[in-house]
Write a structure and sequence with these properties.
This protein is mainly alpha-helical. The chain has one domain. About 80% of the residues lie in helices and about 0% in strands. It contains seven helices and no strands. The relative contact order is 0.17. The mean pLDDT is about 90.
Length: about 160
């Protein structure tokens, strides 16, 4: 949970960039780079745990459990930030900005018109969701991607004890 807290704080700081990215393009680039760094940071944390706590050896199952706890702890922490943002700060900014962006994109790329109904349904669904529903969707997504990262991280970090 210690490393999960670090990861969660990282995700919260990364999330702060997300709404700003709609106004400042550099923040969008920074958000993407920081998002792509998450698996490497997770690997780094598990490796530190293996070397400092486990004496340089860790099984796949042990690494998988460590990753699970780390990603669930991080997801819980960032879920609090998501809830606070969508309940008290956003007031429809993200969905309105995305809707405007989608309308502009459709005028520039007429090939996207075939997806217009699906995107409108998605926008309306998001617009009608409460802050807790949005938070739970994001929480579920964070948990899912954390679980996806468990297998490669566990395989890369596992090391048998020296004889």
């Amino acid at each position: 949970m210690h490393f999960g807290t670090y990861m969660g704080v990282y995700w919260v700081l990364k999330f702060i960039l997300f709404p700003l990215a709609f106004r400042i393009p550099f923040f969008q680039f920074l958000f993407v780079v920081l998002t792509l760094a998450v698996p490497f940071i997770g690997y780094f944390y598990v490796k530190i745990y293996r070397d400092k706590v486990c004496g340089g050896a860790i099984s796949f199952a042990h690494a998988a459990v460590f990753c699970t706890i780390m990603y669930v702890s991080a997801s819980l922490l960032v879920a609090v930030a998501h809830y606070v943002y969508f309940q008290f700060i956003d007031h429809g900014f993200l969905i309105d900005t995305f809707s405007t962006y989608w309308d502009q994109l459709m005028t520039q790329m007429p090939a996207l018109l075939e997806h217009q109904d699906n995107v409108r349904m998605l926008i309306d669904d998001f617009r009608s969701a409460s802050p807790i529903e949005i938070t739970m969707r994001l929480f579920s997504s964070d948990i899912f991607w954390g679980l996806v990262l468990i297998v490669p991280t566990g395989l890369m970090v596992m090391r048998r004890p020296k004889q």
